[in-house]
Design brief:
The protein has about 270 residues and is α/β, with parallel strands linked by helices. Helix 9 links the parallel strand 7 and strand 8. It is globular, with a radius of gyration of 17 Å. The chain binds 2-phosphoglycolic acid (PGA). 2-phosphoglycolic acid binds next to strand 8. The site of 2-phosphoglycolic acid has 13 residues, from strand 8.
């Protein structure tokens, strides 16, 4: 069965509540009325989650989901400034981005912390969007797969052994985001990316045999390059940062990406 292509908008630390609400209204107005199966997920900052969640509930876009950008691994306690999975779930989040490279590199999150976050998210009923990716230095040293393999195996271990269990992995997403491609305008070649995604899928299915997650690509996705990524067999969707900040541009990416995936499947 082919997987529903997914388009995730990661707004990072952008948009106040009123800006987020305006975006959502524009997004709803511009929503393409076609029959192609797709899922669109918005990941606003914490402060705008409640308002976007409310708007989503009353909107006509049933295929749109809400995601947080980060979460703490404990469910409550003396952790000033942190937010738990239970809080996000209650707010209407279905997904949570875990292990984004900005969390790993700017805030020092280790593979072990990411493992704990995945366990906590699963326990509370959230679906992880797990980000993995190599730095330019690692890539140049020929270590791309070794790095991805380490990030995956540590991240997934806790889910297998932990209280929450992994659930069915086909509900999860794994985003391959080379660190050097994020916000730089540079991207890996689409066919090379698809091959990495194939390896990610077979790594997961060999180890866990619990359904296949969708594997998304992230890093400088734009209206210009979306079609070339989405036509690849193992690219199930994209995680978009900068180009998702305007509703028009994100809608265009969804439209071009959905058409490209559809065309590649009926060929
Ligand atoms: P970008 O960010 O699209 O701006 O490169 C992607 C991401 O960080 O998820």
């Amino acid at each position: 069965m082919s997987k529903t292509p997914c388009f995730v908008a990661n707004w990072k630390m952008n948009k106040t509540i009123s800006e987020a609400e305006r975006y959502f209204r524009d997004f709803e107005k511009g929503w393409l009325r076609h029959n192609l199966p797709i899922e669109a997920v918005l990941a606003p900052p914490f402060t705008a989650l409640a308002s976007v969640s409310r708007l989503m509930k009353h909107a006509s876009l049933e295929i749109t989901g809400l995601s947080a950008q980060n979460v703490h691994f404990e469910s409550s306690g003396a952790f000033t400034g942190e937010i738990s999975s239970e809080m996000l779930f209650e707010m209407g989040c279905r997904y949570v981005i875990i292990g984004h490279s900005e969390r790993r590199h700017l805030f020092g999150e280790s593979d072990e912390v990411i493992q704990q976050k995945i366990g906590a998210a699963r326990k509370a009923g959230l679906l992880p969007i797990l980000c993995i990716g190599e730095t330019l230095k690692e890539r140049r040293a020929g270590k791309t797969w070794a790095v991805l393999e380490r990030q995956l195996s540590v991240a997934l271990e806790n889910g297998r052994l932990g209280d929450g269990g992994m659930g069915n992995l086909s509900d999860w997403m794994i985003a391959y985001e080379p660190v050097w491609a994020i916000g730089t305008g540079e991207t890996p070649l689409p066919d090379e990316t698809s091959e990495i995604h194939r390896k990610v899928q077979s790594f997961v299915s060999d180890r866990l045999q619990k359904g296949l997650p969708r594997v998304l690509y992230g890093g400088s996705v734009s209206e210009k390059n979306i079609a070339s990524f989405m036509k690849q067999a193992f690219i199930d969707g994209v995680l978009v940062g900068g180009a998702s900040l305007s509703a028009d541009s994100f809608l265009k990416i969804i439209e071009l990406g959905a058409m490209s995936k559809h065309a590649s499947r009926v060929k």
